Amino acid sequence: MIHVEPNHGVMGATVTGIDLHQPLADTDFADVLRALGRHCVLRFPDQLLSAAELRDFSARFGALQSGLGTSEPGVPEVSILSNVKEGGKLIGIPDAGQDWHTDMTYNRTPGFVNALVAYKVPVRDGVVLGATEFCDTAAAYEGLSDALKQRLADASATHDLNMYWEHMRREKGSSRAPLTPEQRRARPPVEHPVFLTHPVSGRRIIYVNPGFTDFINGVERAESDAILTELFTHIMRPEYRYVHRWQQDDLLIWDHLSSWHYAVPDYGPDEHRLMKRCQVMADKIFDPDFIKRALGTQLAAGPT
After folding, report:
1. Could you report the per-residue pLDDT of 143-196, keeping only the tens digit for each?
2. Residue 264 lies in a domain
3. Does 304 map to a domain?
4. Does the residue 303 lie in any domain?
5. Terminus of the chain with fewer CB atoms < 10 Å: N or C?
6. 301 in a domain, yes or no?
7. What angle do CA 154, 238, 276 make, to 5 degrees?
8. CA distance 119 to 273
């Protein structure tokens, strides 16, 4: 029987009593989806899934991204995040997520769930390094002033992959090459509402992030920058933050719609970290029929 133990903080829970090596029963998937909507970040300890098992589990939530970065051989939906080298060559992406962002908001169909399995975690003097930090954008919305909620109630913002890409190259020393003109045409800037209603929890969320959000539409650039700075500073307040400290064989899933995340790069090139990841798109989660089928109940909150 599934047991969900909430963390003693704003977000996060540990889920036990389930074997993710096996296909999830519909009732178990409903419990996991509800827990994800409620807690945003779910840890499943001692779940060292194979790449194929990770793919099959993740696919219950929506379509899977493939073909980005270094993928698992034979399983293109599973990417490898790692600073490990074999034959002098990196086996995965070494710097993924090393700044605050929400995945795939630069897509017209953004990300919904990230699923990571910890195959190897860096340890120094008995302390595990390479934590992942989170901010809860639903809790942050609740803490906004009424004036700002009203001002931005119908606002939208433009998100751009190239903004993040160049920031990583310029500020973080990333070795990634600039996006080609073809890549930029394939990922043009897109617009999303500044606020969304979460389709599972029904909570309002702030849907901008410092990684990909370039500007708020319909206002002068200086005013847009000031509003985004105010929102970003608010979301980063300590009461809205949670740090996940990895353990070997952890499976961690989190909800992109109501969180930011940041992979802490506090380990060296010889302190090895190896994660395998599935990126689930938000192609189903805003469909009321999907929610009804998945949860076996009436839709609690319609899409925005």
Report:
1. 999 999 999 999 999 998 877 766 555 555 556 677 677 777 777 899 999 999
2. yes
3. no
4. no
5. N
6. no
7. 85
8. 8
Q: What is the CA radius of gyration of the chain?
A: 19
- Angstrom distance (rounded) from CA 92 to CA 276: 9
Provide the 10 A C-beta neighbour count for residue 78: 25
Domain that holds residue 187: 3-295
Which pair of structure tokens corresponds to residue 83?
């600073």
The two tokens of residue 43 are 């840890």
pLDDT of the residue at 2? 95
Pairing mode of beta strands 13-16, 41-44: parallel
From the list 101, 115, 41, 60, the residue with the least C-alpha distance to 284 is 60
pTM of the model: 0.91
CATH of the domain at 130: 3.60.130.10
Tokens 């993040």 belong to which residue?
164
The pLDDT tens digits for 99-111 are: 899 999 999 999 9
Residue by residue, what is the 3-state secondary structure of the chain? CCEEEECCCCCCEEEECCCCCCCCCHHHHHHHHHHHHHHCEEEECCCCCCHHHHHHHHCCCCCECCCCCCEECCEEEEEEEECCEECCEECCECCCCCCCECCCCCCCCCEEEEEEEEEECCEECCEECCCEEEEEHHHHHHCCCHHHHHHCCCCEEEECHHHHHHHHHHHCCCCCCCCCHHHHHHCCCEEEECEEECCCCCCEEECCCCCCEEEECCCCHHHHHHHHHHHHHHHCCHHHEEEECCCCCCEEEEEHHHEEEEECCCCCCCCCCEEEEEEEECCCCCCHHHHHHHHCCCCCCCCC
Query: How big is the CA angle at 171 (ends 233 and 109), to the nearest 5 degrees?
Result: 65
Q: How far apart are CA 285 and CA 297, in angstroms?
A: 15
192: Cβ contacts below 8 Å, ≥ 6 apart: 105, 110, 156, 157, 159, 207
Q: Domain count of the chain?
A: 1
